[in-house]
Amino acid sequence: MSLNFNDAKTTAEVLTTALPYIQRFVDKIIVVKYGGNAMTDPELESSFARDIVLLKTVGLHPVVVHGGGPQVDTLLKELGRKSERIDGMRVTDKSTMDIVEMVLGGGVNKSIVSLINKHGGRAIGLTGKDANLIHAKKMLMQKVDDDGVETPIDLGYVGDVVSVNKDVINMLISSNFIPVIAPLGVDDNGDTYNINADLVAGKVAEFLQAEKLMLLTNIKGVLGRDGKVVTGLTPKKVDTMIEDGTISGGMIPKIGCALDAVRSGVKSAVIVDGRVPHATLLEIFTNEGVGTLISREVDSAMS
Hints:
alpha/beta, Carbamate kinase, seven-stranded mixed sheet, two-stranded antiparallel ribbon, 9 helices, 15 strands
């Protein structure tokens, strides 16, 4: 009996601690990019789904944008197809695009929707093609050779985001649904494009003027030269860390999405360790958080 009372007391204390954060974020839009280990570990999948349902239940408005690169790689391999990448970007011809659309818009999207609904949510799946949600254009990529010469690279059906139809998402939010968006877009000619999920999440947050953008990753966050997670960053500080090489490699495009969102009106962006159970709740409802926070100004402890 004593143990049960202590457990109940601990639960009550946790809820009380979360109260000011719930009050701050109630009725605010939180865009969450979901990918990496959190999508392949059953325990983390369940943890994520429960977190999203809880956010909606206490009055926040989560919008999920998901990736699915590993799932696409798996199917391509099963079909005997090679997956070519240039600087981390998948070269996507027409037949590969059909497979990407099937995996992201079908299997992965519906799986996430089903899991959220299983835990009591009201999720609805979308791709960027639905109601012209994501207007895209072909990505133009330049590769710089060792001699400094720029060479254009054709990645095929890989796109950039031109605009996001926020009315569709706002309509779903106001109807108490949780939008779950696959990172596909369509151009003026009706062609479908595969778009980086971080980029889509950042643009969705920008067009919705979200309170927070969360990018779930497979790392702890931005690391300083001492190997420790750096947080409380501003765009100016991030620029300095890129210039001096503290931030480099694959982290640059990810943090670039976060920076663009913040510079375009999103209150804050955070790169979160998605390998931590309940990472979404820990980031929003605790002072410590579990990643690297970027904001236009270093706000109070509850930023």
